[in-house]
Batch of 2 targets.
Target 1
Amino acid sequence: MTTNKSTAKTTAKNNAKGDKTMATKKTEKKVEKSNSEKFSELANIRVPKALRVLKSISSLANDDRYDYTDEQSDAILNALKSAVDEVTQCFENGGKKDEEVFRI
């Protein structure tokens, strides 16, 4: 019987703690971050992620492990250069993409 009582007491204590935790979480106000803080936070996540992916792509150049043609490697390099050019253009234009201009 004492086991049941102590278990019940422990459960009640844990439930009370859980209720307090939930109440605290609900009453905490979300702190607004400045745009600069948001930028830094996201850049610190996204840039290392992109660099890891680029490193994994560069491992495809290992001709001891893979066979590929010049056309295949050129396609990869052109796609990556194009993506970097787009990112560069976005930073130069404040995030706005240049509209395609048609000329004859």
Target 2
Amino acid sequence: MIESTFLWLFIVVFMVHDFEEIITVEHWAEKRKSLLESKWAKRIWSFWNIRSNEFAKRDVVIFLFVSMLVLLRVEFTSVPGVEMGFQVFLWIVLIHNLVHLIQTCVTRTYTPGLYTAIILVTPYTLFLLINL
């Protein structure tokens, strides 16, 4: 069984990823306005074409949600469904990271959050899934 410290650390790992997005999104959007050539690029653009403070507001909600899930997993493991719910959440995180890769392939350029998704969040999420 995995120690609760590793679960709590997931919040830090995930927020480092969100910080990369917050720090890079506005500058990235200003330089990538030319990406509107395809339908998929327009969809990606509609997500990324925001100011950093707006992105940070989204991330506060994400931070609270992730914190709540980790708290439930640490404190209420014996409650039916908590373990499975947390594992489903971790799979969603992996899909989110895959979306970063797809966006990068579609736009043929870096997208905010790509580096930490590949280097930090995906390995840590896999570590948790393997050890849960």
